[in-house]
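Minimal example, chain plus NAP.
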Amino acid sequence: MDYLKQFSLEGKVALVTGAAYGIGFAIAKAYAKAGAQIAFNCRGEKHMAEAVEAYKKEGIDAKGYFCDVTKEDEVQKMVKDIEKELGTVDILVNNAGIIKRIPMIEMSTEEFRQVIDIDLNAPFIVSKAVIPGMIKKGHGKIINICSMMSELGRETVSAYAAAKGGLKMLTRNICSEYGSANIQCNGIGPGYIATPQTAPLRTEGHPFNSFILSKTPANRWGTPEDLEGPAIFLASDASNFVNGHILYVDGGILAYIGKQP
Ligand code: NAP
Ligand code: GCO
């Protein structure tokens, strides 16, 4: 048996939300290299143009769709367009997400709701849009991008932790409800990854920088490329009996009490 074949995504259509840059872009790039046809979305013209250029530079013919994942009508239209232009979505990565770092009692309800809307409600909306096609096709892979905050809290990220904790349980519930339709729904829990989202924490001399290094056995920030292999595994036939699992790709943070000062 050609063992590597089980990791191939040849002939598959993958939708990666929020994949104009950051973690989503890295995962979409890896999927393309593994053989998948890529569909991605973002909200702004500028990011879209830059993303299409960036994919082209990698030799990837990715199809970009303007879509705010919190808007159900836009999501439904995007999925229908993908199904028309590329085919049924075989692999969905719910990657689009934001964070607001505000002490809870200073955070407005509107700000809290906005984070929940993008980080938790949107994965529900997009999954609901693609699952019928997966059921019809007889298989599907859904990968939700969770977080250390699916397991841990910290100051100023109440909305984000609530959303990512909820996303962990949404992952397990999709597994429970649609596993019999041969849909595997798993999560990836990245540790601290160097992307625009964490750029404010990585500025020169920022105390958080040394803090994270002291909490990470690998003693480094992760890179989006660290997520490529785990993401391919969860999107491929190699994980057909893995379901409802959150795969933490964190350099060991969750296993480690932290370096003695
Ligand atoms: P990022 O660099 O800020 O990228 C976020 C992406 O989400 C952007 O492409 C953004 O596109 C898109 N997005 C945000 N809101 C959207 C909406 N309403 N509709 C459509 N697209 C939307 O973040 P990242 O670090 O790559 O993180 C990606 C995912 O990984 C997030 O879910 C994040 O919570 C999670 N994560 C990140 C880390 C980390 O350390 N970086 C660790 C664990 C988990 P626009 O240009 O339209 O804003
Ligand atoms: C923060 C960071 C984290 C990372 C990630 C960790 O402010 O604590 O942004 O939340 O984004 O989610 O897994």
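Helices lie at 22-33, 45-57, 72-85, 109-137, 158-178, 207-215, 228-235. The domain at 9-253 is CATH 3.40.50.720 (Rossmann fold).
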